[in-house]
Amino acid sequence: MKHSPNDPILLNSSLHVDEARKAIADLVKELLEEAKNIDDPSKLISVSLDQAINRILAEDLLSPIDVPAADNSAMDGYAFNSACLGNSAVIVSLKVVGTAYAGKPYEGGISVGECLKIMTGAVMPDGCDTVIPQELSNSQSNQSIEFKQNLLKPGENRRLRGEDLQKGKPAIKAGRLLRPSDLGLAASLGVASLKVHRKLKVAILSSGDELRALGQELDTGSIYDSNRYSLTGLLNRLNLDIVDCGIVRDDPASLKAAFCNAAKVADVLISSGGVSVGEADFTKQIMQELGDVGFWKIAMRPGRPMAFGTLKPVAGQASPRKTLFFGLPGNPVAVMVTFYQFVRSALLQLNGANQTEAQLTQAISELTIRKKPGRTEFQRAILGRGTDGKPTVKLTGSQGAGILRSMSEANCFVILHHDQGNVAPGDWVDVALFEGLL
Predict the structure, then answer these.
(1) Phi and psi dihedrals of 155, rounded to 5?
(2) Domains and CATH numbers, the chain
(3) 131 neighbors 70 (Cβ within 8 angstroms)
(4) Could you tell me which residues are beta bridge partners of residue 431?
(5) Are 390 and 401 in contact (CB under 8 A)?
(6) Quick one: which of 353, 369, 2 has its CA closest to 179?
(7) What distance lies between CA 224 and its chain's CA centroid?
(8) What span, in angstroms and rounded, lies between the C-alpha atoms of 115 and 126?
């Protein structure tokens, strides 16, 4: 069932994690549809390959050439015409008439009964359609080779023109979060720049009278603000533009002013703190004044309280678009968990990506993990490998939402699903890695 912001179901119930994800995805889809009607020439820009990493491709990259550009050899060996092959173990003897190198084609053709010494990647000469690997042939001299004709079939070890990619066909599809391999592929096609989506502008702020900036003295009951630095690092990983709105006091006027200022310049606002039900938690109130809010109690740990919705356009705003809003919990670990599980995919989706969800793997739990059914838990853990070579995982220790050290020590989440109970040593569990290989 689809819910809208300000829906009592969202505001008052503890949503299943999957329901929360769907509600966010549905709202982002609505914002994207609305954005189609806003004329914004800066949505798409061209960037050079050295600036394209972690950008999102806005248009299909069509190959300007065939890959490979000509039939060529898949390995070092001897190229010949397969007309001389049969189905028996009869020895074939071929005369070597020349050599073909990669980047230096052989000039001339080959007749049946002749062969050409050929290197990997070299263009196949006229009359040749098959390559016998060098190690399978018996060279009698520099002038001839022999091999059993049943060692290979006609056409083997030849790469056909356009076999990998045909001219005019998509080499990389729009919506791709560009990785190093994609940049290499584009360069191999002679493409020097790519059309990408403009970077989202994301404003961040921390709310709380107890928070102090780095360099300030800590008085009784105060703490340093770490959340903005965690969020800055997470957003930089996505290559987004960040607007740091600093620390905001726990009062409605200050929060309202900060939200309005952020909405003027940012596509997305992420706040941390002030989304619980305490007397000094004003985010829900301000959101209801400035826009639409789905205020959740999500059935998860950590990160149960979280606000989500949109801010309406405000006076002085450059574009008539709404600003997407995420009000994350104040606890440092809960901030990172909710970002990974909800915000990251929404930002990618809003920025035009077609693959937004983190991929899961599995590992064997080394220890007992206690868990009650009825909520989803994201436990910080260390992924390793057992003596048998199988992947293993163990928790970092205490899983309190304020223990930021656990996130620093961990390299993954163990995801314990809504209906899942206790985990015994040796059980397989789902794991989400913090780092990607590419």
Answers:
(1) 90, -5
(2) 8-53+199-350 (3.40.980.10), 72-159 (2.170.190.11), 360-433 (2.40.340.10)
(3) no
(4) 361, 414
(5) no
(6) 353
(7) 31
(8) 11
Neighbours of 151 (CB within 10 A): 14
Over its C-alpha atoms, the chain yields an Rg (Å, rounded) of 30
**Token match 């300007």: residue?**
64
Read off the pLDDT of residues 130-180 as tens digits, 9 standing for 90 and up. Answer: 999 999 998 767 789 999 888 899 999 999 999 999 999 999 999 999 999
User: Per the structure block, which two tokens stand in for 199?
Assistant: 């970077």
In single-letter form, the type of residue at position 191 comes to V
Backbone phi, then psi, for 21, in 5-degree steps?
Answer: -60, -45
Q: Is 211 helix (H, G, I), strand (E, B) or coil?
A: strand
The token duo for 390 is 């199988």
DSSP-assigned states of every residue in 244-260: EEEEE-SSHHHHHHHHH
For residues 394 and 369, what is the distance between their CA atoms, to the nearest angstrom?
9
Q: How many residues does the chain have?
A: 438
d(CA 21, CA 6): 16
CB-based burial, 182-208: b 16+ in 10 Å, e otherwise: bbebbeebebeebbbbbbbbbbbbbbb
**What is the number of H-type helices and E-type strands within the chain?**
9, 27
Give me the torsion for CA of 315, 319, 320, 321, rounded to 10°: -110
Q: How far is CA 405 from CA 88, 217, 303, 326, in A?
A: 69, 22, 17, 24
Quote the pTM value: 0.85
- Which tokens in the block code for residue 34? 């609305």
Question: Long-range contacts: 231-235, Cβ < 8 Å, 24+?
Answer: 231/204, 231/270, 231/272, 231/335, 231/339, 232/204, 234/336, 234/339, 234/340, 234/344, 235/202, 235/204, 235/347
Mean pLDDT of all residues in 201-206: 96
